[in-house]
Amino acid sequence: MKPTALLDLDGHVYVDGAMGEDGGIALSQAQREGFEKFVIVLTQERSYRKVPQRFPSVYRQVFRRYPALGEALLTRWARYNETRERIFALEEEGKAHVFAPERMPVDNGTRDLRRLAAAHRMGLSQSRRELPAMCEFLGVKQA
Q1: Which of 55, 68, 70, 105 could disulfide-link to 63, CB 3.0 to 4.6 Å?
Q2: Domain range annotation of the chain
Q3: How far apart are CA 108 and CA 116, in angstroms?
């Protein structure tokens, strides 16, 4: 079984960005680069929380050649949840505008095109409603 979090390209191994320090949301890097104001688009509802992996020994076995990656997968949930908490704190401070779906009726395994299209329409409708607030946050005039 080839781990999907790995990509071997021209003899170099790359890992999915979700293994990073923020669990897949590059907030810390943006802050290090000096950004202080953020528009953040989440793919999960505000109440969403990742949970720990159910079978840690399986991950350690699959990634035995890359133990740091196995541990990163097993601890991603905590980093991701903590980053979301930081995002919502920034929003409270007026330093972030957060777009989060009101409802997410599909998951990353959904293949039904009708369900995907319906989810897209829901997101488009919500984004149109929220666009004035985002423009105000950014200090730009809505077209």
Answers
A1: 70
A2: 1-35+49-93
A3: 10
Tally Cβ neighbours within 10 Å of residue 70.
22
Task: State whether the Cα torsion 127-129-134-135 is positive or negative.
Answer: positive
Residue 73 exposed, middle or buried by CB count within 10 Å (0-12, 13-18, 19+): buried
pLDDT tens per residue across span 20-67: 999 999 999 999 999 999 999 999 999 999 999 999 999 999 999 989
Q: Which residues contact 100 (CB under 8 A, 6 or more apart)?
A: 42, 44, 45, 46
Per residue in 84-108, pLDDT (tens digit) is 999 999 999 999 999 999 999 999 9
* pTM for this model (two decimals): 0.87
